[in-house]
Write a structure and sequence with these properties.
heterodimer, A: mainly alpha, MetI-like fold, 4% strand, B: alpha/beta, Rossmann fold, 36% helix
Chain lengths: 308, 546
C-alpha cells in the first residue's frame, strides 16, 4: 500500500535544485559586462605605475592645458631625451591627465568597496539584533530613521570640518547614511525568517540565540546583502566624486576623478578633455557596478526583481 | 444520469511538461465527460495532474506547458482550436472557474460588487443599472446576507467563506454551462466547507450546470459527486458513478486511496489511566495585544483559561477550526510564546514564567513536529545536521550524536546513509519523518504534533500517523496532537479536546466524544464532516467479478 516504496533504500525525489548560480551568471551578459569593466578598473588601479604613467602630482608650468595626444620631449638628468605622449592631455597645472585618471581609479574603487563592506558589516549586526530582539527594535529603528534624515553632503561637510579632509572622512560621511538602509533590509529578512518553522524547531532544540542567528538566520541575508552591497558601492563611488568635486572630499592634490573634474571645471568650454576622461571612467564604473548588481539581484532574489 | 449530450467532453488530452520536469507529460491521453446537471469529481493526490487538466480546459496553461494532443469539446466545439480571443469570450460566459484560495483570486483593491459586475460588463451589453440588479440577484442567490451593503465591501472585509461565495457568484453570474471548481473548499473550515458544498450543489441543480469538481478529499467526493474520475500521475485510472467507485473500486490505486482515508469511527483504545500526568495546563490564557505607539491598542484573547492534561503514553487530540486557539495552545506549551496567565506544568515544574536561561533544561522535554514539511527543515543544512543540532547543543559529542541519528533514521523508516542529503531531496512525507527523528533525538517526554499530517497526501498521511503512534508506544511519549481533521483525530487520539473561540468546549475519551458529542458546537463540527455517511478506512466490498 505504500506510495513511498523506496523508504529504506533511497530518497526517491529528484533534486529540483535551482540551477547552479555561477553557471547562470556567466550566461547573463549584463553581469559579464559589469564584472569585466570592474575587473579592468581594478587592473588599472593596481597597475597604474606600470601602465606608462608619470607622477600624477608633478606640476609642469610650461606644459599646461595641452590637448590629448600632444607629445612632450623630456630631457633626462644624464642629458638624453625622450618623448612622452600625453594621451589625455594635461590640466591647467601641466599635470598628465592620463596618469591622474589611472591613479584616480584607486580612490574610487577603495571608497566604493570600503563603503559597501563597512556599511554592510555594521548594518548586518544592528539589523540582526534589532530584528531578533524585539524590545530593542523600536529604539534602534527610530535612531536609524534619524540617521536616514541626515543628508550625506551635510554630514561630509561636518566630518571634514571636524577632522581633516581625507579618504577616511569621506568614507565615514558615505557610510553613516547607508547603514540604516542595510539595517532595514536585514531586519525585514530576520522578521520573516524568524517565523519559519525551522527556526522555531532550532529554538525548541535549545540552540543558543547567537548560534541560532548565525546558523539559521544569517544565511538568508547573504544574497540580498550582496545585491545591496553593489548598490552601496555604486552610490559611494558617485558620492565620493561629488564630494571631491565640491571640494569637501579628498584634498585636491590627490588624483581622484572628482578632483580632476573639479580642476577642469574652470576651462571646461576650451579644454573639455579634463572633464571628459574622468567623467567617462566614473560613468562606466558606476554603470558596471549597477549592472552587476541588477544581474545578481535577478539571479539571487527573483522576488525583489519583480517588485522593483 | 440522463443520456444527454455532454457539456464537456475531453478526449485523449495530453499536456506536455517542459524539459527537466519529473515526468514528460502532466497528463497523458485522458478522456472523460461532464453532462449537464452533473457533478464530476476529479480526485487524486498532489502531482496527479488534476489542476493541469482544469487549466488546460480553460486555456489557462502557463506558457512553458502545452497541450499537444486530444480534443476538449465544450458543447461540441473544440476549445483547443479556438484563438485566445475566442477562448476569452467563452471564459466567464459559457465556462467559469473557482479557485482554491479566495483571497488571492479576488482583487484586493476592488469592491466585490464591481468584480462581479466586471464579468457582466465584458460579456454582455447590459447598462450599469441592469448590471447592479443582476449582481444583487446573484449575491442573494449565493446566500450572502444584506447584498445591498455587501456589494460595496472589499475582499478583506469578508470572511473566507463569504469570499468563496463571491467567487461562486462571479463564476455563475452569466449562467455558464460548465463550472470548474479547483479545490474550492480546501482552504475553508469544515463547517464553512459544508455550507459551500451545499450551495454549489443547490445552484448547480437549479441551473443544470455541469460541474468539474477537483479535490483530493474523498470525504468531499462522497458528499457531492455524481461521478468520479480518479487520477494517478497524469492518467485516469478509474472512472465511474460515485457510489460504485467509492463502494467497489476496481483499480488498486483507488482502493488504496479509499482505504487510506481515516474512518470517523474511532477504534477501541484502552484508556490510559495508570500512567503519571507529564503535562498539564492550569487556567492557561493567552492574550495578544494588537496596535502600537500611535495606533489604538486592543486585545485579542486567543486562548481563554484552558485546562488540559496528558499522561505518559497517551495521545490527546486538540481539534478545532482555524482561529479556535489550538495552535496558540501548542505554542504556549512549547514555550515558543509565553502564556499571559495560568500555569504549564511539565511533571511538577511550572514552565509558564521561566526566562530563556531557566527554560533551557526543559526545552529537551517538549518537542514539536510542525505542519509544513517544506519549511520545517533549514534548506541550507543537511538532515544529519538538523537531527544532531539539539543533542550537540546539550553537550553530546558529534560522533555519538550522528550514530544516534542513524539509528533514528532507521527507526522512522529512512535510509541511515541519507543523513548527508539536503531536505529538498526528500518528499513531504519523508521530511515529516525527518522532523520526527529530529524531535526524538532530544529524547523528549512530550511530543507536540501541530497539524503534522495536514499537508500530506492521504496515503502518506496514514504512514506518518502510524509512525507517530509507533514512537509514542515505543518511547512512552505523551503526545499532544493538534488537528482540524476529525478523521485523523478519531484514529490516533485516546482523548479529544474540542476548542472553539479560545475555549475547550468539550473534552473526553475519543469514543465518547465521537459517539455522543455533548456540546452543540461539537455536534455542528461532526455534522459538517464531509462524507460522514460513508464509512471509509474499512475494507470495501470486492468488485463484482463480471
Amino acid at each position: 500500500m505504500s506510495t513511498e516504496p523506496a523508504l529504506l533504500t533511497d530518497a526517491a525525489v529528484p533534486a529540483p535544485r535551482p540551477t547552479n548560480l555561477f553557471a547562470g551568471l556567466a550566461r547573463d551578459w549584463a553581469v559579464l559586462f559589469g564584472a569585466a569593466v570592474i575587473l579592468v578598473m581594478i587592473v588599472i588601479g593596481v597597475g597604474a605605475p606600470f601602465l606608462g604613467t608619470v607622477d600624477p602630482t608633478e606640476i609642469n608650468p610650461t606644459f599646461r592645458n595641452r590637448v590629448p595626444g600632444t607629445e612632450q620631449t623630456i630631457r633626462r638628468a644624464d642629458g638624453t631625451t625622450a618623448t612622452y605622449r600625453h594621451w589625455m592631455g594635461t590640466d591647467s597645472l601641466g599635470r598628465d591627465v592620463y596618469s591622474r585618471v589611472l591613479y584616480g581609479a584607486r580612490i574610487s574603487l577603495v571608497v566604493g568597496a570600503a563603503a559597501a563592506a563597512i556599511s554592510i558589516a555594521i548594518g548586518l549586526v544592528i539589523g540582526l539584533v534589532a530584528g531578533y530582539l524585539r524590545w530593542l527594535d523600536g529604539i534602534v529603528m527610530r535612531f536609524m530613521d534619524g540617521l536616514m534624515a541626515i543628508p550625506a553632503i551635510l554630514l561630509a561637510l561636518a566630518v571634514v570640518s571636524l577632522f581633516r579632509a581625507g579618504i577616511v572622512s569621506v568614507i565615514i560621511a558615505i557610510v553613516v547614511p547607508e547603514i540604516p538602509r542595510v539595517v532595514r533590509l536585514v531586519r525585514a529578512i530576520v522578521l520573516s525568517v524568524r517565523e519559519e518553522p525551522y527556526v522555531e524547531a532550532a529554538i525548541m532544540t535549545g540552540t543558543p540565540t547567537p548560534l541560532l542567528l548565525i546558523r539559521h538566520v544569517l544565511p538568508n541575508t547573504v544574497a540580498p546583502l550582496i545585491v545591496q552591497g553593489t548598490f552601496v558601492c555604486a552610490s559611494a563611488i558617485l558620492l565620493e566624486a561629488i564630494l571631491s568635486f565640491l571640494g569637501v572630499g579628498i584634498p585636491p592634490d590627490t588624483p581622484t576623478w572628482g578632483n580632476i573634474m573639479a580642476e577642469g571645471r574652470g576651462l571646461f568650454r576650451v579644454y573639455p578633455h579634463n572633464i571628459f576622461f574622468p567623467g567617462l571612467c566614473l560613468a562606466l564604473t558606476v554603470l558596471a557596478v549597477n549592472m552587476l548588481g541588477d544581474g545578481l539581484r535577478d539571479r539571487l532574489d527573483p522576488k525583489l526583481a519583480k517588485r522593483m | 444520469m440522463m443520456s444527454t449530450a455532454p457539456v464537456l467532453d475531453v478526449q485523449g488530452l495530453t499536456v506536455r511538461l517542459p524539459a527537466g520536469a519529473d515526468r514528460r507529460h502532466a497528463v497523458e491521453n485522458i478522456s472523460f465527460a461532464v453532462k449537464p446537471g452533473e457533478i464530476v469529481c476529479m480526485v487524486g493526490e498532489s502531482g496527479s495532474g488534476k489542476s493541469v487538466t482544469a487549466h488546460a480546459i480553460m486555456g489557462l496553461l502557463p506558457r512553458e506547458v502545452s497541450a499537444i494532443a486530444g480534443r476538449v469539446l465544450l458543447d461540441g466545439e473544440d476549445l483547443m482550436k479556438k484563438s485566445p480571443a475566442a477562448l476569452r469570450r467563452l471564459r466567464g460566459d459559457r465556462m467559469a472557474m473557482i479557485f482554491q484560495e479566495p483571497m488571492t483570486a479576488l482583487n484586493p483593491v476592488m469592491r466585490v460588487g464591481e468584480q462581479i459586475a466586471e464579468v457582466l460588463a465584458i460579456h454582455s451589453d447590459r447598462d450599469e443599472k441592469a448590471r447592479r440588479g443582476r449582481v444583487l440577484d446573484i449575491i442573494a442567490a449565493v446566500q450572502l446576507p444584506e447584498p445591498a451593503r455587501l456589494i460595496d465591501l472589499y475582499p478583506h472585509q469578508l470572511s473566507g467563506g463569504q469570499r468563496q461565495r463571491i467567487m461562486i457568484a462571479a463564476a455563475l453570474v452569466l449562467d455558464p454551462d460548465l463550472l470548474i471548481a479547483d479545490e474550492p473548499t480546501t482552504a475553508l473550515d469544515v463547517t464553512t466547507q459544508a455550507q459551500i458544498l451545499r450551495l454549489i450543489r443547490a445552484l448547480q441543480q437549479r441551473r443544470n450546470t455541469g460541474v468539474l469538481f477537483i479535490t483530493h478529499d474523498f470525504g468531499v467526493v462522497a458528499e457531492i459527486a455524481d461521478r468520479v474520475v480518479v487520477m494517478q500521475e497524469g492518467r485516469v485510472v478509474e472512472e465511474g458513478a460515485a457510489a460504485s467507485v467509492l463502494r467497489a473500486p476496481r483499480d488498486d490505486y483507488t482502493r488504496m486511496l479509499i482505504r487510506a482515508v481515516p474512518s470517523l469511527t474511532p477504534p477501541a483504545r484502552p484508556p490510559v489511566t495508570a500512567a503519571p500526568v507529564v503535562l498539564a495546563t492550569k487556567a492557561m490564557s493567552k492574550t495578544f495585544t494588537v496596535g502600537g505607539w500611535f495606533a489604538g491598542r486592543h486585545e485579542v484573547a486567543a486562548v481563554k483559561s484552558v485546562d488540559l492534561s496528558v499522561r505518559r503514553g497517551e495521545t490527546l487530540g486538540v481539534v478545532g477550526e482555524s482561529g479556535s486557539g489550538k495552535t496558540t495552545v501548542a505554542r504556549c506549551i512549547a514555550r515558543l510564546i509565553a502564556p499571559s496567565d495560568g500555569a504549564i506544568l511539565i511533571e511538577d515544574t511550572d514552565v509558564a514564567r521561566l526566562g530563556t536561561r531557566a527554560l533551557r533544561p526543559h526545552r529537551k522535554r517538549v518537542q514539536v513536529v510542525f505542519q509544513d514539511p517544506y519549511r520545517s527543515l533549514n534548506p541550507r543544512r543537511t538532515v544529519g545536521e538538523a537531527i544532531v543540532e539539539g543533542p550537540v547543543n546539550f553537550g553530546a559529542p558529534r560522533p555519538a550524536a550522528f550514530a544516534r541519528a542513524q539509528e533514528l533514521m532507521r527507526l522512522v523508516g529512512l535510509a541511515p546513509d541519507a543523513l548527508g542529503r539536503f531536505p529538498h531531496q526528500f518528499s513531504g512525507g519523508q521530511r515529516q519523518r525527518i522532523c520526527i527523528a529530529r524531535a526524538l533525538a532530544m529524547e523528549p517526554e512530550i511530543l507536540i504534533a501541530d497539524e503534522a499530517v495536514s499537508a500530506l497526501d492521504v496515503s502518506v498521511q496514514a504512514q506518518v500517523l502510524a509512525l507517530i503512534d509507533d514512537v509514542r508506544r515505543r518511547f512512552d511519549l505523551a503526545v499532544l496532537f493538534i488537528t482540524h481533521d476529525l478523521r485523523v483525530a478519531a484514529q490516533i487520539c485516546h482523548r479529544i479536546a474540542v476548542m472553539h473561540r479560545g475555549e475547550v468546549v468539550e473534552e473526553g475519551p475519543t469514543v465518547q466524544v465521537f459517539g455522543a458529542p455533548a456540546h452543540p458546537y461539537t455536534r455542528a463540527l461532526f455534522d459538517a464532516a464531509p462524507g460522514k455517511n460513508f464509512s471509509f478506512g474499512v475494507e470495501q466490498q470486492t468488485p463484482p467479478s463480471s
